[in-house]
Amino acid sequence: MASPATRKSLLKEKVMDLMTSTATLPLLFSCLGIFGLFRLLQWMRTKAYLRNAVVVITGATSGLGKECARAFHAAGAKLVLCGRNVEALEELTRELMASHASQGQTHKPYTVIFDLADTGATVAAAAEILQCFGYVDILINNAGISYRGTVVDTTVDVDKRVMETNYFGPIALTKALLPSMIKRRQGHIVAISSIQGKISIPFRSAYAASKHATQAFFDCLRAEMEQDEIQVTVISPGYIHTNLSVNAITADGSRYGAIDKNTAQGRSPAEVAQDVLAAVGKKKKDVILADLLPSLAIYVRTLAPELFFSIMASRARKERKAKNS
Ligand SMILES: NC(=O)C1=CN([C@@H]2O[C@H](COP(=O)(O)OP(=O)(O)OC[C@H]3O[C@@H](n4cnc5c(N)ncnc54)[C@H](OP(=O)(O)O)[C@@H]3O)[C@@H](O)[C@H]2O)C=CC1
Ligand SMILES: CCCCCCCCCCCCCCCC(=O)OCC(=O)COP(=O)(O)O
């Protein structure tokens, strides 16, 4: 019997033979060529899909929404920027018009001002949005607020406020824009959810519930819309370095007002916006944009729920202890 060293060198020889044989090399180059060609075609299709597309972005005044506005504008999209803060949207419009980030033609964005927590205003805003370019190709439901608090201390009004902004607002806007998309047999709805739309962590009940509801709603919509050729993409990011925690509301409805360590250490919103652009361009259905641990946590929640629940309970104990000490 050959020694391990001899076996290793025999194997190496065989691999080298195979690699350099007249049949393998052309096959290898053909595979690489086909892969390269496939990537090139995919890149060209993505570019064509986004160029001149009418893209509506909610929550464009800050954080991820603002970065999505920059990314989609540079990709040549026709933007409708939505938010509550007129000055912030006007400033962003000026910045985009002055920017030279795109190599191709860019378009002057429209702005539509409304509060997503007000369903009537949201439905009226949809009509205004449709008037901007006459139709909508891509709606990015990005606006949202977070929350921090214990279930027992939190008033139902706070739960409702979070649900209004993160769930009822986006679904009202989606429902108001869908008929025109269906008529054109063309459209793409994007929901910016969260890892917390897949798993629930302690002291985030209202936020996690709103994001789970978002995931469920848009999963149903995707199935229903297939026959009308409307695309639905749900994107679930991990922590992003934005003002989300600063703007979060607490158990009594007051502003949290601080940037959390996890948020501060989160990904840059510009980077995440590039991932959103790529996911939309490739018409992905469900995308997780997070590190290994949160991604693993989703599998643990499904495959070993008891383990996940005990990890969360211990997390709750630790956080409570840290707060009380
Ligand atoms: N940051 C993170 O760690 C993560 C964020 N996300 C999600 O990303 C999305 C964007 O959040 P992010 O950029 O981080 O946070 P920001 O707080 O920076 O941005 C939130 C945006 O939502 C808008 N908004 C909030 N409430 C309303 C409302 N009632 N009506 C209209 N617009 C409103 C804000 O507008 P205004 O300026 O008027 O307040 C702002 O433009 C959210 O859906 C969030 O859940 C998901 C995972 C992680
Ligand atoms: C044996 C292996 C066990 C592995 C399981 C590990 C479980 C680790 C838990 C990880 C929890 C990750 C939570 C991530 C939360 C997140 O990314 O949220 C994104 C947000 O939406 C942030 O909003 P917030 O307001 O909470 O800042």
TrEMBL record:
<feature type="domain" description="Ketoreductase">
    <location>
        <begin position="53"/>
        <end position="243"/>
    </location>
</feature>
<dbReference type="GO" id="GO:0005737">
    <property type="term" value="C:cytoplasm"/>
</dbReference>
<protein>
    <recommendedName>
        <fullName>Dehydrogenase/reductase SDR family member 7B</fullName>
    </recommendedName>
</protein>
<keyword id="KW-0521">NADP</keyword>
<dbReference type="InterPro" id="IPR057326">
    <property type="entry name" value="KR_dom"/>
</dbReference>
<keyword id="KW-0520">NAD</keyword>
<dbReference type="GO" id="GO:0006629">
    <property type="term" value="P:lipid metabolic process"/>
</dbReference>
<keyword id="KW-0812">Transmembrane</keyword>
<dbReference type="InterPro" id="IPR002347">
    <property type="entry name" value="SDR_fam"/>
</dbReference>
<dbReference type="InterPro" id="IPR036291">
    <property type="entry name" value="NAD(P)-bd_dom_sf"/>
</dbReference>
<dbReference type="GO" id="GO:0016020">
    <property type="term" value="C:membrane"/>
</dbReference>
<dbReference type="Pfam" id="PF00106">
    <property type="entry name" value="adh_short"/>
</dbReference>
<keyword id="KW-1133">Transmembrane helix</keyword>
<comment type="function">
    <text>Putative oxidoreductase.</text>
</comment>
<comment type="similarity">
    <text>Belongs to the short-chain dehydrogenases/reductases (SDR) family.</text>
</comment>
<keyword id="KW-0560">Oxidoreductase</keyword>
<dbReference type="InterPro" id="IPR020904">
    <property type="entry name" value="Sc_DH/Rdtase_CS"/>
</dbReference>
<feature type="transmembrane region" description="Helical">
    <location>
        <begin position="20"/>
        <end position="41"/>
    </location>
</feature>
<dbReference type="GO" id="GO:0016616">
    <property type="term" value="F:oxidoreductase activity, acting on the CH-OH group of donors, NAD or NADP as acceptor"/>
</dbReference>
<keyword id="KW-0472">Membrane</keyword>
